[in-house]
Amino acid sequence: MTATTSAIRTRFAPSPTGLLHIGGVRTALFSWAYAKKHAGVFVLRIEDTDLERSTPESVAAIMDGMHWVGLDYDEGPFYQMQRMERYKAVIAQMLASGHAYHCYCSREELDAMRAEAEARGEKPRYDRRWRPEDGKTLPEIPAGVSPVVRFRTPIDGVVAWDDAVKGRIEIGNTELDDLIIARPDGTPTYNFCVVVDDWDMQISHVIRGDDHVNNTPRQIHMYQALGATVPVFAHLPMIFNDQGQKMSKRRDAVSVVDYDKMGFLPEALLNYLARLGWAHGDDEFFTMDQFVEWFDLANVSPSPSRFDRDKLLWLNAQHIKAAEPQRLAERVGAFLADKGVDFTSGPALAEVCVLLKDRSQTLVEMADQAEYFYRPLVPTVEVAEKHLTPDDEARLGLFAEGVARLDTWDQASLSQFIKDFVKQQGVKMPQVGMPLRAKVFGTTSTPSVDAVLALIGREEVLRRLASS
């Protein structure tokens, strides 16, 4: 089977050996955007041949992560473990054509080869002793040994490709070994499976991290041996943390699930990841529709990017401001529920989010601020000593008496009452506003006090003002 379509087809092919991480999401994002930009097809493939490390939980985490960030795939998910018969058929084809051969080397023999090469100051490699050649006598096949299958790598010349990100790359074939493509038990290896998958799925552009650059020459040789069209390769630069180190699961929050739990919006995370290694002028804040319209592999930088949490927080704040209040309320409600806050009997949470959306960098911050709309917080000792003195409490008693007589309980009426009360008391606004916040909300940091009082409601405000 050879790719015959001219359509753009990209793929994201994670291994289910852990959570979906930041680098993987950026790879998926760029692959997804490139397919969308060219009205192509985006394929999801799960590379689950690592039986020792692949788990159903990791597969579920990948699927959940893709769903959360909203990167919808057009085909898949395909699972490599369900394609074993296809791999075995291609291996048999390559053995028959002479592009692969059986190797009976033991582990001890391979270790000896490596040691001898290192002693000579050479790169450790297999010495091709089982590779068939004209006029060559192969060793006697040892009894009871199950062979591996090795790919017959060209010995002379170079393998080259024009990388869509890194430019022209050439590697001498003398640098390459005869790669194992099937283990003694017959199971195929990673590099071989990838080639067969991308060939069968007619992938036109392989967009992946630059840790795969060393795999590319081996894979190109296999495409050519199979008579398959070699796809365009685009290797994305690494993402470093703020210390300039490769992001680590131990040091850094790299899982998509972590960002969901920390209160980030998926579109903010995608917006930020899009800017790691790619740019469209000076644009920082944009939608995914805009990103798809603007995206081009030619504008991806080959240099590593540095993860800046402060920039991500800023972008998240911008996306929170732009988000629909009801959508914010659904997620903020989940965070409030986790805190044990019953938000069903107070003001509509979407209306609360309208007041808080310009003041929050994350949805967790918004949930923390929303709490006092549904239950009063206990002010700190410092706040109470500063803003709830006996004089303040006496003034708040008079405030409660006056505000209880309001004909209409809305923001405009409350605003006018507070202004009149401040004037009547002969004090400045903070001398009323700050004690009022401390008493009713338990914090001095809130949106406009009249707006918050209006939302909380007359009965609850008066109850809180009357509490000791």
Biggest β-sheet description: 3 strands, parallel
Strand arrangement in the largest pleated sheet: 1-2-3
The oligomeric state is single chain
Strand proportion, as a percent range, falls in 5-15%
Which residue ranges are poorly predicted, with pLDDT under 50 across at least 5 consecutive positions?
1-5
How does this structure look, described?
By secondary structure, the protein is mostly helical. Helices cover 45% and strands 11% of the residues. It has 19 helices and twelve strands. The protein has helices spanning 22-37, 56-69, 84-97, 107-119, 190-200, 216-226, 256-261, 266-274, 288-294, 309-322, 325-338, 349-356, 363-370, 381-387, 390-403, 411-425, 430-440, 449-456, 458-466; strands at residues 9-12, 41-46, 75-79, 100-103, 148-151, 158-163, 167-172, 180-182, 205-209, 232-236, 239-240, 305-306. It has a three-stranded parallel beta sheet, covered by helices on one side. The protein has a three-stranded antiparallel beta sheet with strand order 4-5-8. The longest helix has 16 residues, at 22-37.
